[in-house]
Amino acid sequence: MGRDEFSCLVLQELHRSDVWQEIHIATNPDEKVDRGSRLSVSPLKILGHSLALPVHTIPTKTEFKNWTIPPPFSDVNPSAQHVIITASFGRILPLKMLKLFASDRRLNVHPSLLPAYRGAAPIQHAIMNDEKETGVCIVNMLKRSEGIDAGPIWGTQTLSLPENAIFSDLRDKLAIKGGQLLVSVLRDMMAGKAVSKAQAQTNISFAPTISFKDATLDFTTMSAEAIVRTYRAIGHQRPLTVYLPTIKTLQMHSPSVHASPPPYTPAVPGRACYSKPDKAMLIRCADNSVLSVLKVKQEGRALLDAREWWSGAKSFGLVVDNEINFDSQDDVDQWLEPEFIG
Fold first, then answer.
1. CB 272 within 8 A of CB 306
2. In the chain, which ranges are continuous DSSP H helix?
3. How many Å from the N-terminal Cα to the C-terminal Cα in the chain?
4. Per-residue pLDDT averaged across 194-201, rounded?
5. Which helix (H) or strand (E) holds 56?
């Protein structure tokens, strides 16, 4: 049971192994996105069809709890040979569904070192929090009242976070390791030597679903390094956003840390200038750091290069000239200072 690229890589490792006789896939239905202009199809569905595996479509969230698992897994007397596996599925399985499988045959491939980062977005939170190590676990699924991602662990594989880790790269590495670990656990189960271990009751942390709040920037409290980490962690799913004085939003695209900001860069966090040499907007952040932004998208407008937006912002009064002594006219042309709220 899964839906996305993480699920696909786990399935590929499982499919090429010798631990299965029959695999069925359950995944999300097709849905129209972009205001109905495009049909989004589950990557796991596409992969399943390419591997000639049976693919079953689950209903919407409200109806999922009443969905009937297909035969042969719907037998009310659980078979020890039947295993239910979730990998980035995005749904909590109801108890009546879990009961169709033996209590030690309900496995989830979870991309964190449990009990750290229980929840829906462990990879994103690990990057945002600048973790140096992460990993993947095969965890036994419990009924909801006993806790999400709180079950016994069948196996763990650690992974060092690469410097400047990006979500998609880390997701793929963890998925491949998770698939390989899953195969190892299933092999041990078949040989009767698999052993689960209760999770530690210390160092428990949570990784809730990424929200708009996670993507809303505050230059007075966040360093440029923290903002770039946030972009690497969640930029694929939510644009980083600040509020302009007009209360409209401004999205920050392609941000980076500016290691050697020019002398005309504002000193107050939340204030910015446009730098011609960098072709970027430079924003002072917390810890005396500076963020460089190449592209922006104002609410209700198209994505623009920083220079294009800066020129337009002057005409709308979002950028205010200040009287400052410069060494040259070039410096004057490069320095214009708006104020951000966020």
1. no
2. 5-15, 43-50, 61-64, 95-98, 122-128, 167-191, 224-234, 306-315, 329-334
3. 39
4. 96
5. strand 55-57
Query: Chain centroid to CA 182: how far?
Result: 22
Quick check: 275 pLDDT over 80?
A: yes
Contact criterion met (CB below 8 Å) for 129 and 117: no
**Residue 325 has what pLDDT?**
37
Confidence of residue 315 (pLDDT cuts 50, 70, 90): low
- Find all residues with CB under 8 Å of 19, minimum gap 6, and list them: 183, 186, 187, 190
Q: Tell me if 72 sits within 8 A of 81, measured CB to CB.
A: no
Q: Are 191 and 18 in contact (CB under 8 A)?
A: no
Helix H or strand E encompassing 197: none
Cα–Cα nearest to 151, from 161, 140, 136 = 140
- Residue 128 to residue 251: CA distance in whole angstroms: 18
pLDDT digits (tens, 9 = 90+) for 6-34: 999 999 999 999 999 999 999 999 988 77
Tell me the mean pLDDT in the region 73-98.
Answer: 94
